[in-house]
Specification:
Largest sheet: 7 strands, parallel
Strand order of the largest sheet: 3-2-1-4-5-6-11
Number of helices: 10
Structural class: alpha/beta
Radius of gyration: 20 Å
Helix content: 40-55%
CATH architecture of one domain: 3-Layer(aba) Sandwich
Number of strands: 13
CATH topology of one domain: Rossmann fold
CATH superfamily of one domain: NAD(P)-binding Rossmann-like Domain
Amino acid sequence: MKRILILGGSGFVGRSVCEQLAAHPALGAARIVVPTRRRARARHLLPLPQVDVIEADVNQDRALQRLLQGADAVVNLVAILHGRPDDFEHAHVDLCQRLAEECVKVGVRRLVHVSALGVSDDPTAAPSHYLRTKAEGEQALRVNGLDLTVLRPSVIFGAHDRFFNLFATLQRLFPVMPLAGGESRFQPVWVEDVAAAIVRCLADPAVSVGRTFELGGPDVCTLAELVKLAGRWSGHPRPVLPLPLAAGRLQARAMAWLPGEPLMSTDNLDSMKVPNVLAGKLPGLPALGISPTSMSAVVPAYLGARRNWAEQLDAWRAQAKR
């Protein structure tokens, strides 16, 4: 391959994908094209000499057409967790429909699409806008002319995640953790394992074209257990206060009015009605030659580093007040 286009490449998963692609013995010589609406968002990729960061809006047809010209493969990482129904439709369905159409037009056949664990082959069965539009996006890409691989990861953890880092920060700030959906089950997967799966699919299409993979780690935990681990590993364990679903939905609606991205939405709660664990009916990381990494091998290290930094910052503040 000479040119690989990564949509959503400036994000959390995209960072690891670009780094692993650049270091891959067979794919390292390929140009990795990462479009972004703001170049500053991808500044962490600029030191990689193989990566071309291009300011472009993939939601504009002409921009998408230009980006696809000359590409040998496309990786689609574009996704949102929060928003209005139209936002989910736009990010997960409309983009996939346009991407499939334009790939067929310009002759780009290879496409690796990152979806989500819990997605059903029947979109009407989905309890949330997130899962329904993820399912519809997959269907939009299953067209003649595309060599498609779909990856469905559980919640993804890593040094720059918005999962463990968020719950660790909240427990540093507050004495108790009110939590709805605490019994929902997850099978968290390391971002580097997800990136390795994407790279393996690109490097060896024979094992992945036309297949769907479920990506999860070796540990299955409830949300409440994961929150407690985040507190313990960050050095700020707090009691978890279970909330009934009705109270959780009220809490989520209130959070939606706060500035910035909400911590939890009613759509998130609806998504958690579906267990976010491997069903065992589809191949997983081992089918791609990857041994899943446990949370305990990774998360304590980066939460511990974050704790040390926060404690040092608190010490500096206290000294400045004297």
